[in-house]
């Protein structure tokens, strides 16, 4: 019995080693052909084998297969999509999504969305979200639809908002339009993304939209806008942020105070000092920290 089990185990190990050796040989051969510019990107058999290589148990080898597929480019997209949708091995599905991140082929967007919303594995879902982010503008309408829908849980919407912010300036025209959407989730995500656009491009329009959002009827939007302006470091927003420190909503006030500290404009000092006597302890503490930030920044500038 023991001898039989040992023989079976030995056979399994031999099979694994054989597959690993075949994978090593395959990826080396393909990379040599790519270097010599003789690789045939229409060879479906080899492309399928490369995708199967994404299931190799060795992480570094999987990475090498992914990089090789990425270097081949969009010719591999249909095979990666097929693996993402239907492969029984979750390791292959995960790696397929990550490889589509490298390729950033807009044709993959519908299937990436399918995986993002429906795959049973959390890593596949988050990797698909990453691929959607890297694909750029082609993903934006679908991401906005997800944010606007009541059908999706907050973790999905959180990933969609992150992807939208990552896309940033590529999505600018969509963001300007979506800022007037009825959905609060959409508008919050758009405010966060506009902050990234303003950082990337020093975009005056985005900065002005963030300033305008400080007077939005929704406190959550005002809070997001106040926080984003601190990340953007937009000096013309200082008078508006000073007004926001008197907002009726505590979270808006806190975000405005934090942003004034980050921007570091001495014009805010008088208003911040007045907040040292505020009835809310958290406001007093944040005002003290913001004042220290501004004074420290002033000393550095003088130096």
Q: What is the first-to-last residue Cα distance?
A: 81 Å
Helical element count? 17
Q: How many strand elements? A: 0
- Which outline best applies? elongated
Low-confidence stretches: none
Radius of gyration: 26 Å
| Main sheet properties | none
Helix-strand pattern: HHHHHHHHHHHHHHHHH
What portion of the residues fall into strands of 2 or more residues? under 5%
Write the SSE topology.
Layout: H1 2-35, H2 44-52, H3 59-72, H4 77-86, H5 90-103, H6 109-118, H7 122-135, H8 140-148, H9 154-167, H10 172-178, H11 184-201, H12 204-213, H13 219-232, H14 238-244, H15 250-263, H16 269-274, H17 281-302
Helix pairs in contact: 1-3, 3-5, 4-5, 5-7, 6-7, 7-9, 8-9, 8-11, 9-11, 10-11, 11-12, 11-13, 12-13, 13-15, 14-15, 15-17
Overview of the molecule:
This protein is mainly alpha-helical and 303 residues long. The chain is built from 17 helices and no strands. The protein has helices at residues 2-35, 44-52, 59-72, 77-86, 90-103, 109-118, 122-135, 140-148, 154-167, 172-178, 184-201, 204-213, 219-232, 238-244, 250-263, 269-274, 281-302. The model has no long low-confidence stretch (mean pLDDT 92).
In short:
This protein is mainly alpha-helical. The chain has 17 helices and no strands.
């Amino acid at each position: 019995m023991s001898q039989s089990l040992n023989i079976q185990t030995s056979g399994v190990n031999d099979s694994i080693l054989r597959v690993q050796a075949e994978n090593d040989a395959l990826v080396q051969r393909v990379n040599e052909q790519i270097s010599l510019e003789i690789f045939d990107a229409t060879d479906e058999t080899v492309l399928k084998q490369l995708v199967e290589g994404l299931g190799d148990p060795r992480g570094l080898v999987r990475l090498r297969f992914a990089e090789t597929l990425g270097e081949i480019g969009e010719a591999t997209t249909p095979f990666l999509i097929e693996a993402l949708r239907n492969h029984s091995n979750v390791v292959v599905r995960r790696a397929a999504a990550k490889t589509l991140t490298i390729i950033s082929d807009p044709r993959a967007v519908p299937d990436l969305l399918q995986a993002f919303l429906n795959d049973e594995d959390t890593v596949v879902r988050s990797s698909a979200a990453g691929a959607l982010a890297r694909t750029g503008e082609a993903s934006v309408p679908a991401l906005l639809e997800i944010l606007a829908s009541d059908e999706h849980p907050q973790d999905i919407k959180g990933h969609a908002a992150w992807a939208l912010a990552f896309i940033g300036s590529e999505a600018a025209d969509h963001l300007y339009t979506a800022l007037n959407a009825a959905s609060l989730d959409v508008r919050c995500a758009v405010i966060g993304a506009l902050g990234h656009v303003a950082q990337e491009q020093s975009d005056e329009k985005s900065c002005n939209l963030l300033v305008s959002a400080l007077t939005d009827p929704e406190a959550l939007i005002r809070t997001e806008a106040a926080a984003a302006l601190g990340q953007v470091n937009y000096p013309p927003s200082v008078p508006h942020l000073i007004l926001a420190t008197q907002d009726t909503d505590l979270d808006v006030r806190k975000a405005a105070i934090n942003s004034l500290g980050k921007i570091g404009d001495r014009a805010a000092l008088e208003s911040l000092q007045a907040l040292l006597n505020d009835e809310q302890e958290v406001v007093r503490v944040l005002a003290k920290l913001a004042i220290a930030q501004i004074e420290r920044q002033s000393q550095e500038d003088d130096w």
